Amino acid sequence: MEPRFNMFTNEIAVRFGKRFANASMVISASSLPKTTQELVALRVSQINGCAFCVDMHTKEATAAGESPTRLNLVATWREAVGFTEAERAALAFAEEGTRLADAHTGVSDETWAKVREHYDDDQIAALIALVALVNAANRMNVIVRNPAGSYEPGMLAETLS
């Protein structure tokens, strides 16, 4: 399967991608736990049906030491054991912040209160930015039909550096 459009060979797309990658580096360097970052990115990508990003975030999480069991259960985290209360708050936030068309209220006050309970202001800023950034990446990849399966951990950073 070939993408409709190669975002890695077009000059404008590559220039945009580098700036997009720079934004993601701010989130990566934040105090929001790396595991939480990858779980949230994976869940958002699952909701949006972005195969490329599901592949990427699963492999990046695995490379960072995440267990296959937890990765397999991200889609059903509400019914699964093994996620901390903080991770559950972040996953609920990710779902509600992604499913805006499904729930016109966006992130509920209950979820926001749980996020505030577990994360400081810098971590919340990173979480907000992460959900927004992954949603944007998902949309780009779905639009161009970027195929999944060939991603290797660290590949995107190398491509856009």
3D structure, described in words:
Helix content is 66%, strand content 0%. By secondary structure, the protein is an all-alpha fold. It has one domain (11-160): AhpD-like. Helix 5 crosses helix 6. The longest helix is centred in the last third of the chain and has 24 residues, at 121-144. The radius of gyration is 15 Å and the shape is globular. Pfam families: CMD. Residues 21-96 form the Carboxymuconolactone decarboxylase-like domain. It comes from Saccharomonospora glauca K62.
How many DSSP-defined strands?
0
Pick out the low-confidence regions. Answer: none
Structural class: mainly alpha
What do we call the CATH homologous superfamily? Answer: AhpD-like
Biggest sheet architecture: none
Which descriptor suits the 3D outline?
A: globular
Number of domains: 1
- CATH-derived topology: AhpD-like
CATH class: Mainly Alpha
How much strand? under 5%
Mean pLDDT comes to 93
By CATH, the architecture is named Up-down Bundle
Q: How big is the Rg?
A: 15 Å
State the end-to-end distance: 26 Å
Number of helices: 8
Helix content: 55-70%
Series of H and E elements: HHHHHHHH
Sequence-ordered SSE layout with sheet pairings:
Layout: H1 11-28, H2 34-48, H3 51-63, H4 68-73, H5 85-98, H6 109-118, H7 121-144, H8 155-160
Helix pairs in contact: 1-7, 2-3, 2-5, 2-7, 5-6, 5-7
Domain Carboxymuconolactone decarboxylase-like: 21-96
Pfam families: CMD
Keywords: Oxidoreductase, Peroxidase
In short:
This protein is an all-alpha fold. It has 8 helices and no strands.
Core attributes:
161 residues; mainly alpha; AhpD-like; 66% helix; globular; peroxidase
